[in-house]
TrEMBL record:
Domain Thiaminase-2/PQQC: start-end pairs: 22-214
GO CC term (a single one): cytosol
Lineage top rank: taxon: Bacteria
One example of a Gene Ontology biological process annotation: thiamine biosynthetic process
Organism: Acinetobacter kyonggiensis
Matches recorded under SUPFAM superfamilies: Heme oxygenase-like
UniProt-recorded name of the protein: Aminopyrimidine aminohydrolase
Catalytic activity: thiamine + H2O = 5-(2-hydroxyethyl)-4-methylthiazole + 4-amino-5-hydroxymethyl-2-methylpyrimidine + H(+); 4-amino-5-aminomethyl-2-methylpyrimidine + H2O = 4-amino-5-hydroxymethyl-2-methylpyrimidine + NH4(+)
InterPro entries recorded: Haem_Oase-like_multi-hlx (IPR016084), Thiaminase-2/PQQC (IPR004305), Thiaminase_II (IPR027574), Thiamine_Salvage_TenA (IPR050967)
E.C. no: 3.5.99.2
Keyword Hydrolase: yes
UniProt KW Hydrolase keyword: yes
Coiled-coil parts of chain: none
Amino acid sequence: MSFSQDLWQRNLALYQKTLALPFNQELAQGTLSQEVFSHYVIQDAHYLLAYGRALAVCAAKAFTADDVMQFSEAAKIAIVVERSLHDSFMREFDISKTQFETTPLTLACHHYTSFLTATAWSESYPVVLASLLPCFWIYAEVGKDIVNHSIANNPYQAWIDTYSGEDFHQAVRNVINTIDQVAARCDADTLEKMHHAYTTAAKLEWLFWDSAYDQRQWLGLDA
């Protein structure tokens, strides 16, 4: 069994819980509240900027020139996608630039982005890579499942197309191949740290969608 296969099997139950979240089920059926989706899009745009920064640090720590190019390009794409959210989803759902810029990170988004950023700066390349993989892999698998169950003329079809498209899935396969190559060079302690980083990020993926569905905020903590 490859390292990536072991990762997936260890976290399969968590993935299935993520797939079963009301956010993802209602997104597939096109019944997700526009208010909930707008909340999610704003937080996702904030998230992608931090994710792009973490990918850039990952590229700087990479073992090979090919890996440097792979994750430098991934960092660029994360920012391009973040900007496209402003030009497409945010415009479609009447989210202004001011509204986006003045909306703070939720607890879930703050927790997830802080984890990725701290891991990127403080851990070794293999562990950083493992922490970044769930956002690639889980989104791809969720996107694949949603497109298989999506209704016709789904109002969220553009989002579905982004994460179920072949370009994204090929990028995910490339990252999985990279982490298997990297893991083959690691000792047992590093491999366990990689497993822990992946599982933590996978839990935060679950939390991000769960939090978005309930539009959870920093309630009662205003100055």
